[in-house]
Amino acid sequence: MSKKTNTLWFILGATVFNVLSTVISFVVLFVLYFRFLSPMLPENAVPIGITLIFIGAIALSFVLYRFILKKITAKIDLDKHFDPLFGRRRPRR
User: Fold this and answer.
1) pTM attached to this predicted model
2) What is the 3-state secondary structure (H, E, C) of the chain?
3) What distance in Å separates the CA atoms of residue 38 and residue 31, rounded to the nearest whole number?
4) Collapsing DSSP states into helix, strand and coil, what is residue 81?
5) Are 20 and 64 in contact (CB under 8 A)?
6) Residue 59 CB coordination number (10 Å)
7) Is 83 within 8 Å of 3 (Cβ atoms)?
8) What distance separates the 2 farthest-apart alpha carbons in the chain?
């Protein structure tokens, strides 16, 4: 496979991983919220809680994605296996 194909597969895999980690984070936070925190709060707090769960899931998946990407870049030379999808810009005169 060419470097461009490797780049496309990496982007596709990273996107799928990021979406799945967001969904899993949302479900885990949702269960934790309704299991432990919801009984202590009034029913008016449910929309705010779900909003915070959604934001927290996105933040958690972002942190997890960055952590795993750092581990991958430490082990693999990305320049050797991947190529930019778009050509480099020419310098302006």
Assistant:
1) 0.81
2) CCHHHHHHHHHHHHHHHHHHHHHHHHHHHHHHHHHHHHHHCCHHHHHHHHHHHHHHHHHHHHHHHHHHHHHHHHHCCHHHHCCCCCCCCCCCC
3) 10
4) helix
5) no
6) 12
7) yes
8) 65
Let me know how many helices (H) and strands (E) the chain has, helices first.
Answer: 3, 0
Please give the helix or strand (H or E) that residue 93 lies within, else none.
Answer: none
Q: Among positive and negative, which fits the CA dihedral 29, 30, 36, 38?
A: positive
The CA distance from 57 to 26, in Å, is: 5
Instruction: Say how far apart CA 69 and CA 90 lie, in whole Å.
Output: 29
Tokens at 64, concatenated = 């997890």
Q: What are the tens digits of pLDDT across the range 45-89? A: 999 999 999 999 999 999 999 999 999 989 988 888 888 877 766
Distances (CA, A) of 85 to 2, 30, 62: 12, 37, 23
